[in-house]
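worker-3 :: picked aldehyde dehydrogenase (NAD(+))
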Amino acid sequence: MAPSRLETISFTTFYNIVNAEPRYAKTEYHGVDPTTGDPNWDVPVATAIDVEDAVAAANKAFEQWKTTTWGYRTERIARFKDALEAYKEEMTDLLAKETGKPRQFAAAEVDNCFKFMDWHIGLKEPKGETYDLPEKYVVNKFVPLGVAAAICPWNFPLLLSLGKVLPAVQMGNAVIVKPSPFTPYTALKMVEIANQAFPPGLVQALGGDDKLGPMLVEHPDIHKISFTGSTATGKKVMAAAAKTVKRVTLEMGGNDACIVLPDADIAKVAPLVAMGAFFNTAQVCIASKRIYVHSSMYEPFLAALTAVTRSLKVGSSNDEGVMLGPVQNVMQYDKVKSFFRDAQEQGYKFALGGSGDGDSSKGKGKGYFINPAIIDNPPDDSYIVREEPFGPIVPVQKYEDLDDAVRRANDTKQGLGATVFGKDEQLLQDVAERLEAGSVWVNTFPDPGPEAQFGGVKESGIGTEFGTMGVLAYANVKSITTVKG
Ligand code: NAD
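worker-3 :: tokens ->
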């Protein structure tokens, strides 16, 4: 069916969505266009009253929605897809404006939303188990759990918020989306458009200040938190959720390792590793943040990686052929600069970048541009190896012995993703098995999709998103035992 414009949506006025109505407030905030440093549109700061109203509307909507069939809910997701497709171009422009990402990658994020929607539309209802025993029947089934709050980050503000809405509603729940204050715009519009397909109160959005997240996490009538963000905040969410024994899915930070095996084809692998390290200006939870290369090929590999990275064009969204946009916000910009400063103060060798006053900013306008940098073999205990920069600076380290490389790769409290490159298929699988990570990609840059479970081990998270288990993350398990005769 061709997408139709069901209602006109303004892409220059923004508000929260409570019970299918726009909700304004006396106090407003705004994101900043990272390309220019100029303010983006004003958005209302949700109040405690807005939270109460949204939670009440969500619980009311849930009472009815939980009685609908999987087929009905899936058909509504298909309608939502049609509605969103009608605004594909506007959403792409808005996403590029709020994040600064190159237009081609903003378009790819929007396209990815439709892939996720298609996957949900094709998904069969996950069933539990039944046991027909001589004396009784036992039915173990999945039931919706109520109202979920989706607490979202700023790096993929549209896809990661949609990625919480779809499984929540498909499993029979209501959901309140809380976008990052840095990037509220596409998430608010996505929810507004969702209201063309779902009943009032089922999908709502509340954006606001630092008080809003804790208010949602502590609210007794919210039953699940799906959080994506930093490990530090995720720990606070988990502690606060304990008070009401909320279900939590926590998708948190990573310090992902990439291991290049001695038999890897340098010319083929270097561009993939560069993509894994620098895509989205390295503001990717599963970006390669520590690259381990065998000593036999270290120098030529580093030279190839440096050459590829040097060729990546840094610039504004609409610049021709641009690969890296600005860092999304000034807080993150300052954090990334601290990694440059530390590497310079410690005297580490930069294979690429690192000139100037602690960063390699291009200084375009007032935007938060940083040229990508590669650090040549810093020590294991360096700041750049131990911590997640979430910006375009990456260490490449030498290893002699593969066991030692795997040990160093696993020597972190985090365990989100990892990549391994080489030719020997058995060895690749063996290394993939030994890496302590929720997702491992073999011979490709990190490349998640709707069908692959996505989640971290250790301090990178609890539970997974996407895939069938990502849908079941919005279910309780209920067992009914009936004695025969
Ligand atoms: P963040 O932790 O600062 O914020 C994430 C969200 O939590 C925002 O919406 C924020 O407003 C909210 N928040 C802040 N304090 C809160 C509190 N006390 N209670 C409830 N909510 C609160 O993270 P960020 O800077 O937006 O994102 C970057 C981090 O997210 C990186 O560490 C990155 O690795 C991680 N990340 C992880 C994944 C993943 O899937 N594992 C995906 C993207 C980003």
